[in-house]
Amino acid sequence: MIRIATATRSPPSGRLFGSVRCSLGHSVPQLPVVRLSLIAMATATNEAPGPTPGAIAVTPWRGVEGHDRLEAWRANVGAPVALDCATADPRPAVTELVVLSWNLWIGRGRLADVVARIRSETDAAIVILAQEAYRSDATVPVRAPGRAARRAAGGFPPRARPRADIVEAADTLGFNLRYVPSMRNGTGRSDRGNAILSELPLSHAWAFELPLVLQRRVPLAATLLLAGGPVHVVSAHLDPRGQPGATWLGVQGRAKQTTYLLEQLGGDVVVLGADLNLGRGRRERSWRLLHHAEFTSGVPAVTPGWRHTFHAVPRLVLDYVLVRDRVGRVAGARVERLDEHPLDRGPTVFGSDHHPLMAHVRLHVPEEERA
What we know:
Layout: E1 2-6, E2 23-28, H1 38-45, E3 56-59, H2 67-75, E4 81-83, E5 96-103, H3 111-119, E6 125-135, H4 147-151, H5 166-173, E7 176-184, E8 191-198, E9 205-208, E10 220-226, E11 229-237, H6 251-264, E12 269-275, H7 285-292, E13 319-325, E14 330-337, E15 357-363
Parallel strand pairs: 1-4, 3-9, 5-6, 11-12
Antiparallel strand pairs: 1-2, 4-7, 5-15, 6-8, 7-8, 9-10, 10-11, 12-13, 14-15
């Protein structure tokens, strides 16, 4: 089942998952799984495709290799979540966006602190592309059914740590939310996956499984319908390694996942926020594939100057915000790494083992569309 909620910032008529103030709308059956070029549809019509507003269609991986094993991973997670908590302001002539991409380390990242810091610097609309977002609710199975399903879960240390539920975080911040789980967190009744939070309306969202390499990975995409045309935003997370053996480093597997990811992203203006897990950096084939697909680090393209985004050991550049603009819609895009400590010290960064990346995106708006 897909959970859908509609916004209410007055005294709520219903609650979702206990502390969420967005009123509970209704549940709808899982949408039929069809392989559609949804970005192309949105680009052509400037309207949100799909039969149910707010619903999230998840397309399963249909390849021969790994298809049977993915069934156990799917059975281990809860339902996608679609919440609309932000004020229904269409902002038809948005000229500037702040796009934050961040691996939340299974809910340990202090997202509210980072949003507060951004708010102190700009009043531009914020869109958050989150990886390893944590969610715990009644849709997650009580326990894994069978040995195969018990193995189909992500690592999750038993030590208790403060974790922020992404649904509660969206409600607290007043952001719209689309969340799709990728994997269960060990034996507990929680899961993690990719999320998109936005102050702007999310016209539709869709997700798709990547080829199975090590764990189930499900990128999530959504469309912002803005004056001058749609802007598509995507949150993705590739595997850090492969199965034991010759493919353990995961380079070949990530290239396979990247190839499939790019096949799904056919829009003219796309902002991709991702933990690409490129252990060999821009020497990997995945990076070359993204470059050939016209994704760049900024507009104009700039090579990032930081030496790492993964704050643990070994310190590597794993996280990226990439922009593709085929129609000259983006006037400029600048990506910066956020540091909690001025000298980048401390065991974590705002609670996470990854640095947040923030992109300032400026958009051309047709003169006739300006308010």
